[in-house]
Amino acid sequence: MQQQGQAETEKAEAxxxxxxxxFTRQALCKRVEKAFVIIQNAWSDKDMxxxxxxxxxxxxxxxxxxxxxxxASRLHNQMDExxxxxxxxxxxxxxxxxxxxxxxxxxxAVDRFFNTENDRPVLGGPTPEVFKxxxxxxxxxxxxxxxxxxxxxxxxxxxxxxxELLDRSECPSCKAIVNSGxxxxxxxxxxxxxxxxxxxxxxxxxxxxxxERDPAxxxxxxxxxxxxxxxxxxxxxxxxxxxxxxxxxxxEFLHANKDDFKxxxxxxxxxxxxxxxxxxxxxxxxxxxxxxxxxxLRVLVCWSGHQVEQIVPGFIRPEFNKSKLFRHEFILKRxxxxxxxxxxxxxxxxxxxxGAPEVNNMNPFCEYCKTPLNDGSFDWILHDIRPFSGFVSDxxxxxxxxxxxxxxxxxxxxxxxxxxxxxGAVQMMxxxxxxxxxxxxxxxxxxxxxNVSQRRVEMIIDSVKEGSIEPEYPKDKIGxxxxxxxxxxxxxxxxxxxxxxxxxxxxxxxKLDFSPKDIRSILSIQRKDLYKNLKNI
Length: 537
Known about the structure:
The chain has 537 residues and is α+β, with helices and mostly antiparallel strands. It has twelve helices and eleven strands.
């Protein structure tokens, strides 16, 4: 797990306190713990209104679509005996648009699925299970810590009006858009422990030029919007109804994929069941040049699910054990010269012209002001979805995007996320067609180190075997070094390295053009760093 270093966190915290003297990590963590329970209960109650005001449009849309599909599947996911065990602030970042914090919440709950047709349990047991989530919250740099209850407690942070159970993000009294980040912290992402990374993996080609042309361009807005697009696409397949994607997609995409949103001749719908996003990452920007009227984005979406054909609505049993991992790139486009709004970064499903909420129908325009929403003249729209084609190699050592902070003239060592690191190990192990018991023990050890569940390990092995994901090994020198170092950290987690781990390191080293001598040197350096860090604890 790649986390922000303690010194870096403390430095960022000091800068934040200088602007907001009342800020304390302990107080924010306590507020998040209460908000955490609100969200879990809202999910169980099948109504997200009680948490609407402190979550971004993307998070709200994701929850709402998932609940809508669960209802049509005759399922209810009930979370009982919810208890927060601990919370810890693990990262702070700031830029001209936002302050950002990551908070790790450790909790336990009884997690069960019920068939709503007969109220019988179909998945999960009565014993509480411990789990971890990383909550990412954003706030405008000018916002200050409130003494009185505010957004996370469901009060308007601007005027103090109670907001609970109001199905909109506008305060009824002062008309403030409360989840804009202008007044208080807003939840913008929930990440499982196995998928958490403090920093994205790569430089983003085209980022400098895009900022030059569009100073309010925000990666947070892009990744929030793509989360919305993903679940809209899944819902369009699930319900066999184009209305879920018509306002967010161009005509070319809708025409090319029209058969995906139709009922089959046998009356069933073909879709991906149990779909869930693992991560969303902007990986490339192609600003429009002289003869191209559009800018384009390439966004990597790592997700899981399994394709089925079912009658909808109707009972659909959850079968997470059948899910595979996928990596697709979502291609978004926007008319060249369009400027981002620095006021609507966290507002992904409202009209970018008048701010009205989207109406879920077949009209590709705003119901209130009639502004076209699917032509790219105001915001980014979906142009294509295709298998991930890889990161751009041999980038210059400049133009780095890291958690909404932009650096120049800085080398950035990319790093695979925890699950893709395990997938790389699996691919090495499968060179002879199978994972031996010794290799499986090694994988289980790695999974424990990286907070990856046994169920996810099985999914990773099956996904690599079936080719739904194919681990990508970096081609550039910096990327190869970072990858082998990440693997070295994993094998040295217990302070020693055995014969099986050494064999894996040599195999991976050969794949990445490192000699056995290079591998031994890297491991030696990494071991010294490990001991040094342990001494400093």
